[in-house]
Amino acid sequence: FGELQKLQYLWLDHNFLEGTLPSALANCSSLVHLSAEGNSLGGVIPSAISALPMLQVMSLSQNNLTGSIPASVF
């Protein structure tokens, strides 16, 4: 994700994705909308997500995520 600094919208819904959300998403400094609903993502939401100054929408329902949303995201 390091080369995608101008990426604004990332939709990954219902793509049978597995694994965890990468901390490298924080490199997408222009990201406004992140959606990865209906996959098999697990683990915790990385606190690095809070480094996205433009993020307005984060939709991660219907996954296997654990833990809480980092308070720094709010």
From TrEMBL:
GO terms for molecular function: kinase activity. It is found in: Membrane. Keywords: Glycoprotein, Kinase, Leucine-rich repeat, Membrane, Receptor, Repeat, Signal, Transferase. It holds the Pfam family LRR_1. Its main location: membrane. One of its GO terms (cellular component) is membrane. The keyword Kinase applies. InterPro entries: Leu-rich_rpt, LRR-RLK, LRR_dom_sf. It comes from the Eukaryota. This is LRR receptor-like kinase. It comes from Trifolium medium.
